[in-house]
Amino acid sequence: MDVAPAQPADDRTPAAARPALRVDVLTIFPGLVESYCEESIVGRARRSGVLEVNVHDLRVATTDAHRTVDDSPFGGGAGMVLAPGPVFAAVELVAPPRPLLLLSPGGGRFDQSMAAELASGPFSLLCGRYEGVDQRVADHLVDGEISIGDFVLAGGELAALVVLECVARLVPGVLGNESSAADESFTTGLLEYPHYTRPATFRGWEVPAVLRSGDHGAIARWRAAESLRRTIERRPDLVAARGGLSEGEVRLLREHGYPLVAVESSGAKRPGSPVGDAALEERDLP
Ligand SMILES: C[S@@+](CC[C@H](N)C(=O)[O-])C[C@H]1O[C@@H](n2cnc3c(N)ncnc32)[C@H](O)[C@@H]1O
C-alpha cells in the first residue's frame, strides 16, 4: 500500500469542499484499516469528501531491511514491545493532527460523549500491537490513551475502527438521515426504544398497535416510555448517572403501564433523586 505522509489542509480550499473531519490512523497493518474504511458509511463519507481518513504505516520511517518496529521487553517476559524509535520517527515524519490518541486497554473508556467531543475536530489514532507500546510513547509522544472496553485485543486496529466509525456517524453529512444519531442509545443518556418494520405480523408476533396508529404524539410518548423502560431494566446505572427519573418520566411510565415498583428494585432510584419520593409515593400502580 502506498502510504504517504499526511498532506496539510490547503487554506485556499473553499470551506464547503473541505472535509468536515480528518482522522489519521498509524498502524503496522495499514491495509487492514484501509480496507475497512473503503466500505459502508466511512467509505461513502470519504468518497463524498465529508470525511478524510489517512492511514499511515508505522514502519514508514524504519531504515533496516526488515523494517523492524518491535523489540524484546527489558526485564524479560513474553512477547515483544513496539519500540519507541520507529514509533516516534513515524509520528514525527507524518505529523498527524493532534490530539494523537493511543489505543490501549489501560486508557480512558471510550463512550458516546467522548465520540461527540472527538467529532468536533481532527484527531489521530495510534494502534499498539504485541505486548503493547514502550511506555515512553505513552508518556512523551501521545496526548491521551483510549480503551474500548475491559478486554484485550491483539492490536489497536479494531479499536481504532470502532472509534473512527462511532465518531464519523456524528459528523453532519455522514449519515443519510440526520436525525438518526440524535435519539440513539447513549446520546440522550438512555437506551433507544425498539424498532419494527414490515410485516406487521411475523410468525404470530405483532408490532405494537400504537406504531400503526398514525398518532405521532402517542408514538413519541410510547417511544420515550420504552426508552426509559429498557434503560431501567437493562442499564439502571445509566438512569442513576443522570440523577434518576423526573416526575414527568414517572408519570409517562405509569401511563404506559410500567410497574414503578420495578424502578425501586432496579436500583434506578437513588436517595434524593427525582425518582425516589415521586415514584415511591405513586405506588398505587397497576
Ligand atoms: C495484546 S494488546 C496489549 C495488552 C497489554 N499487554 C495489556 O495487558 O494491557 C496489544 C494492543 O492492542 C490494543 N488493544 C488491546 N485491547 C484494547 C482495548 N480494549 N482498547 C483499546 N486498545 C486495545 C492496544 O493498542 C495494545 O497495545
Can you offer a commentary on this structure?
This protein is an alpha/beta fold and 286 residues long. The chain has two domains: 15-168, SPOUT methyltransferase, trefoil knot domain (Alpha/beta knot); 201-281, Orthogonal Bundle (Trp Operon Repressor, Chain A), CATH 1.10.1270. It is built from eleven helices and nine strands. The protein has helices spanning 30-36, 40-48, 84-94, 112-118, 135-140, 157-168, 216-234, 236-241, 247-255, 261-266, 274-281, and strands at residues 21-27, 51-57, 70-71, 81-82, 100-109, 123-126, 144-147, 201-202, 205-206. The strands form three sheets. A five-stranded parallel sheet has the order 2-1-6-5-7, with helices on both faces. The chain has a two-stranded antiparallel ribbon with strand order 3-4. The protein has a two-stranded antiparallel ribbon with strand order 8-9. The longest helix is centred in the C-terminal third of the chain and has 19 residues, at 216-234. It starts with 20 loop residues before the first strand and ends in a 5-residue tail after the last helix. Bound molecules: S-adenosylmethionine.
Blueprint of the fold:
Blueprint (H helix, E strand, L loop, with lengths): L20 E7 L2 H7 L3 H9 L2 E7 L12 E2 L9 E2 L1 H11 L5 E10 L2 H7 L4 E4 L8 H6 L3 E4 L9 H12 L32 E2 L2 E2 L9 H19 L1 H6 L5 H9 L5 H6 L7 H8 L5
Parallel strand pairs: 1-2, 1-6, 5-6, 5-7
Antiparallel strand pairs: 3-4, 8-9
The protein binds S-adenosylmethionine.
Number of domains: 2
CATH architecture of the largest domain: 3-Layer(aba) Sandwich
Bound molecules: S-adenosylmethionine
What is the CATH superfamily label of the largest domain?
Answer: SPOUT methyltransferase, trefoil knot domain
CATH class of the largest domain: Alpha Beta
Query: What is the C-alpha radius of gyration, as a whole number of Å?
Result: 24 Å
Tally of strands = 9
What's the helical proportion of residues? 25-40%
Distance between the termini: 64 Å
What is the helix tally?
Answer: 11
The percentage of residues in β strands lies in: 5-15%
What is the residue-mean pLDDT, rounded to a whole number? 88
Structural class: alpha/beta
What low-confidence regions span 5 or more consecutive residues with pLDDT below 50? 1-11, 270-286
| Helix/strand order, N-terminal first | EHHEEEHEHEHEHEEHHHHH
What is the CATH T-level topology of the largest domain? Answer: Alpha/beta knot
- Major sheet strand order: 2-1-6-5-7
